[in-house]
């Protein structure tokens, strides 16, 4: 059985790139016996995809309905070896290790990489070795593209945000006095690695005991198919308090929710996947009754607010004037979602990211296997993007650290 090894190797083992960056590397193909080939072609593609299924019933039968949408950002192709490039009628590779260098430049205005079960934004190198009268050989290599969201380009993120809501519990046709909650944040813009300080007060004016209250950081993602939108919500971090007796109160005083490694808000430049984040205060009633939820939106970016960076001894360069305040973004559909697609396209590249670590997404790795993959497809079949993460405990040297954790 012949041994063949096909790899796509990126120079300096770099894994994170910004729109406009040039990527250099090489394709390495090792063969241990003579091999006829028609061609070796390298492709580099960028796309977003959404797909999920739902079961529908009609009488005694049921069927599966597929919901899909897709965006292509680019599709580059380069022939590394062919009869045209060699001038020969037949290409026979003798036992050896063959190297084919490549260089490609990313377009501007493309979204950050993203991985989830029903939606992805992927940037993939694919090399195909066309072998006559035999199975072709393929290799894949994925990279992370980080489209930076500079919090300083969105006005009002340094201003306070607060919200109050209440709910009346009903039991046996009798309405109780309301349960109310108020939450306050001193600012609205953050980066991964920061903690969100918040203050909240819960007032239980009913005669029932509330089982608990929770403060949580919510990631809410809307996936837009051609005919339907699906909303997926995940709580990233949580602080829980105990029971609140009837007539009692509960308070959160300068408590903090840690922001893990997550993609930036909005997933700008992607029209089919939208990301929002919220600090949510939840009150759970004991027994029957619906929870009270009080959400306050926060924006998670990749470049911190200048005032916050200065508190940690970091000097951000002057940047362009703000483009649009968050208050002017399209209103979020229920429960807490929105999609400011196409905004903030004029950020300068490469961005100045101070004291930044690039760490693996807290959302974890997902399978990258596709329908056409076979046992002759080389490369890792699981991938987790990496995003910016700020460790304010480290002394600043005002340099960008391309360090991968996890």
UniProtKB/TrEMBL annotation:
Gene Ontology CC annotation, any one: cytoplasm
Annotated Arrestin C-terminal-like domain residues: 175-305
Entries under InterPro entries matching the protein: Arrestin-like_C, Arrestin-like_N, Arrestin_C-like, Arrestin_domain-protein, Ig_E-set
Gene3D superfamilies in the cross-refs: 2.60.40.640
Protein's GO biological process: protein transport
One Pfam family per UniProt: Arrestin_N
Family from the record: Belongs to the arrestin family.
Protein name: Arrestin C-terminal-like domain-containing protein
Organism annotation: Dreissena polymorpha
